[in-house]
Amino acid sequence: MAVSMKKKMEMGSSSSNVSDVNLSYRERAISAAGAAFISAIIVNPLDVAKTRLQAQAAGVAYNGVCLAGCSVTSADYMPTSFRTTSTCSPDCSRYRGTFDVLYKVVRQEGFSRLWRGTNASLALAIPSVGIYMPLYDIFRNHLEELTSQNAPLVTPYVPLVAGSLARSIACVTCYPVELARTRMQAFQHREAGVKPPGVLKTLISVITPHKLTSNQVQSYRVLWTGLGAQLARDVPFSAVCWSTLEPLRRKILSSIGDDIGASGVIGANFSAGFVAGSFAAASTCPLDVARTRRQIEKNITRALKMTTWQTLVEIYRDGGIQGLFAGAGPRVARAGPSVGIVVSFYEVVKYTLVYLRKDELQ
């Protein structure tokens, strides 16, 4: 059994894999949704840091709560020459890096704000990954079977194509929630005692101004503002990620030997996912910056007319290479563990379900 299970995992759940033959789409979707739930909660603070840094580079001002956050012992706190009043230094309301964002968000807005947008993250991640991962499996299995019989030289590129197709479908389907999450994380909420707007209220606030000046169809079109930038980021990300992850995890699994168990499945998939996710995140960072800038744009007419290329040119003009890679640190730090967690959890649940099913048959 160990040998057969090893072969199945080496094939990366290919069409010859018993687990893929026996597991239904529903079982795979549940596995993927569970993985997304865990990942979204763990890495959300880094997502907040990344979004704040990118929004700041786009011109969003983070001030108004500085005095409440500064203390007499803080280096950001500057007593005046008369020692009777105090002001904060300009650095107090500017973020200087990932850890500075996390520190200032906790000090100025509260610890819970690090999980701002978590509801949107969960509302996005669960259906998105629930669509994405099973579709990737299905596309990859069919394409590998097709190419291995008709065009073997193309087979190594199947993960790239399957990942791109699956991600495109998931992205278009769930995009409005992604828009809400980005806006929830990018903007500060300063009203004490008032609960910040959730996903639904955020989306309503996006639609309402446009409803006054346009027809019903056009007003809802704004919910897909920046979709082009999102696809321009996510499709290359998935292509790079899966074309790196698949050969890497197969190599790791083959080096483990015949006796592979759940721990081996987790280790191989997390390691491969961590490396692939980090590499893909770093290489597609400029596209992520463009997507964020388009999503937080408050001028509706401008938001609908701007293209991804125009946004990238504008970012480079304003901030150079540094502007194109704003938030790269937290993005890479988030993507590596996130991909590792999602892929390893997804694969180990599939492994467990197959193992239990084989025991039932015996």
Characterization of this structure:
It contains 15 helices and two strands. The radius of gyration is 23 Å and the shape is globular. It is mostly helical. Helix 3 packs antiparallel against helix 15 (328-361), helix 6 packs antiparallel against helix 7 and helix 7 crosses helix 8 (199-211).
Question: What is the H/E order?
Answer: HHHHEEHHHHHHHHHHH
Task: Decide which structural class fits the backbone.
Answer: mainly alpha
Report how far apart the termini are. 12 Å
Strand ordering within the main sheet: 1-2
Describe the main β-sheet briefly: 2 strands, antiparallel
Radius of gyration: 23 Å
Query: What's the total count of β strands?
Result: 2
Give the mean pLDDT: 78
- Report strand %: under 5%
Helix content: over 70%
Tell me the number of helical segments per DSSP (H or I, 4 or more residues long): 15
Give the uncertain stretches in residue-range form: 1-19, 71-86
Which term fits the overall shape?
globular
Features:
about 350 residues; mainly alpha; two-stranded antiparallel ribbon; 15 helices; disordered N terminus
Please specify the SSE layout and strand pairing.
Elements: H1 2-10, H2 18-22, H3 25-57, H4 66-69, E1 77-79, E2 86-88, H5 98-109, H6 118-150, H7 158-186, H8 199-211, H9 216-221, H10 227-256, H11 262-283, H12 285-295, H13 300-305, H14 308-324, H15 328-361
Antiparallel strand pairs: 1-2
Helix pairs in contact: 3-5, 3-6, 3-15, 6-7, 7-8, 7-10, 10-11, 10-12, 11-15, 12-14
